[in-house]
Amino acid sequence: MTQNSPSSATKSTLLAGLAALGGVILASSCCLPLLPFLFGAGAAGSSLLLVRLRPFLMAASVISVAFGFYQAWRAKKCHCRPSVLSTILLWFSLAVVLVFLLFPQAIANLLANILAG
Q: How many other CB atoms are found less than 10 A from the CB of residue 78?
């Protein structure tokens, strides 16, 4: 007979504890909708951070699209033809970045209406 090593005993204890916590959370979800509250708190916290980072993220998006067009221009200059998929993806990303940059409130209202049902 082999004895269990201390690391395997620790792992099984950890898994048992996590299983017990998961069971308690799932069991209480019928009476107390805990998961939606946790999701709401997490979304509120992350949106607070992302609102502060929005100008930097939009600038990074514009720079990334500009870099993509620069790479495509350089590829044509070197007589390399970019793939059709990369060209479509580049133009699609430009359209998405422009829409989100020029109409942020309209996009937010559209997403709110879609998610509200």
A: 7
